[in-house]
Specification:
The protein is α+β, with helices and mostly antiparallel strands. The protein has ten helices and nine strands. The longest helix is centred in the C-terminal third of the chain and has 23 residues.
C-alpha cells in the first residue's frame, strides 16, 4: 500500500463534462489526490478540488454560486454529476489496484476563474461575505456575530480594489410571524463596518437559505457600492435626508440600488425588472414610500442610467 501511496499521492487530475446534458455548459473540475488509506480491503482515496471553470460566460454565475452555498444553489442533480465525474476519473485510473472509495475533501472557491463578465477583484469580497454569513446563519441562532473573527479566521476582511479593511457585524433575529427572510444593512465608513441584520422564521430556517443567498448578494453589492463611493469622496452619509423619497432619489443611492439588483438578477437568473419590483413590494415597511413615489424610484432604477 505504501508503494501505491507514493505513486498516486499529489496526482493532479481533471474531469470535463456537461452538466444537465447541455452542450453549451462544459465544466472542468481540477482536483488532486491528497491522501490514501487501506481499510477493510478497500482503498480510501481522498480528493481535494482545486478549482472549477466553465466554458460559457452565462454559466459562470451558476458555478460561482456553488461557492456561496454549496447545494443550496446548484441543483442536487448537477452536484451529483460533478461528484460522479470525479469518482469516475479516479476509478478509471486506479481500479486495477482493487476496490476504491473516493472522499471529496474540500472546494477551494478562491481559485475559480473570475473573468466572467465581472472581474475577480470586484466579485470576491461579495462572495466571501455571503459565504461566511450563510455559514453562521446555518449553524447559529439569535445573536450578534462579528465576522470574520467569529469564524476563527482573520480579524478583518480586505477589499483589494480599495485597499480597505472592514468587518461585518451580523445580527440574526428570529420571528415566527415571518414567511420570508428579510435582510437590512448599513455601511459605516468611519468604523469600516458593514452592519447586516437577517430576520427569519426559525420554523423553516433551512428552507430560507436559497432566498437568503439572493438577498445577501443584493444587499452586500449595494453596500460595497457605498464603500466605493465613500472611498472616492462621492458621498457624505452624515448629511443624507431622512425623508424616504428624498433619500431614495439621491444619485449615489440609485446607483447602489441598481448595482445590488443587477447582482441579484445574475445570481438568481431572474429578470432585472422583476428583481426591482419584488424588492420594492417586499420591503414596503422598510422604505416607506407611497405608491407614486415607489413607481418613480423604480422607473429611475430601470432606466439603465446607473
Amino acid at each position: 500500500m505504501e508503494d501505491l501511496k507514493d505513486i498516486i499521492l499529489g496526482t493532479n487530475l481533471i474531469w470535463e463534462g456537461n452538466l444537465e446534458d447541455s452542450d453549451d455548459t462544459e465544466v472542468k473540475i481540477y482536483f488532486k489526490i491528497v491522501d490514501l488509506e487501506y481499510i477493510d480491503s478497500v482503498y480510501k482515496i481522498s480528493v481535494e478540488i482545486d478549482k472549477i471553470s466553465a466554458s460559457q460566460n452565462g454559466y459562470g454565475y451558476h458555478i460561482n454560486g456553488f461557492c456561496n452555498s454549496g447545494k443550496d444553489v446548484i441543483s442536487d442533480r448537477e452536484y451529483l454529476q460533478m461528484i460522479s465525474g470525479i469518482i469516475s476519473v479516479i476509478k478509471d485510473k486506479f481500479s486495477q489496484f482493487g476496490d476504491i472509495n473516493v472522499v471529496i475533501k474540500s472546494l477551494n472557491c478562491s481559485d475559480i476563474p473570475q473573468d466572467i463578465n465581472e472581474q475577480k477583484i470586484h466579485r470576491r469580497p461579495i462572495r466571501n461575505a455571503v459565504r461566511d454569513i450563510v455559514r453562521v446563519f446555518k449553524n447559529n441562532d439569535n445573536g450578534v456575530y462579528y465576522l470574520p473573527e467569529f469564524l476563527g479566521d482573520d480579524m478583518v476582511y480586505s477589499h483589494p480594489k480599495m485597499d480597505i479593511d472592514y468587518t461585518v457585524e451580523l445580527e440574526l433575529v428570529s420571528n415566527v410571524d415571518m414567511t420570508e427572510v428579510y435582510v437590512d444593512g448599513n455601511y459605516y465608513p468611519k468604523e469600516e463596518v458593514l452592519e447586516i441584520t437577517v430576520t427569519y422564521n426559525p420554523d423553516n430556517k433551512f428552507e430560507l437559505v436559497s432566498e437568503l443567498i439572493g438577498e445577501l448578494n443584493e444587499l452586500i453589492a449595494h453596500e460595497f457600492t457605498h464603500m466605493r463611493q465613500n472611498f472616492k469622496g462621492q458621498i457624505n452619509k452624515t448629511k443624507e435626508p431622512s425623508e424616504p423619497f428624498k433619500y431614495y432619489s439621491q444619485e449615489h443611492e440609485l446607483e447602489a440600488q441598481t448595482k445590488g439588483f443587477r447582482r441579484k438578477s445574475k445570481i438568481t437568473k431572474t429578470p432585472f425588472n422583476d428583481v426591482v419590483d419584488k424588492w420594492f413590494e417586499k420591503y414596503k415597511e422598510f422604505h416607506k414610500l407611497n405608491d407614486d413615489e415607489m413607481r418613480e424610484i423604480k422607473q429611475k432604477i430601470k432606466s439603465g442610467k446607473y
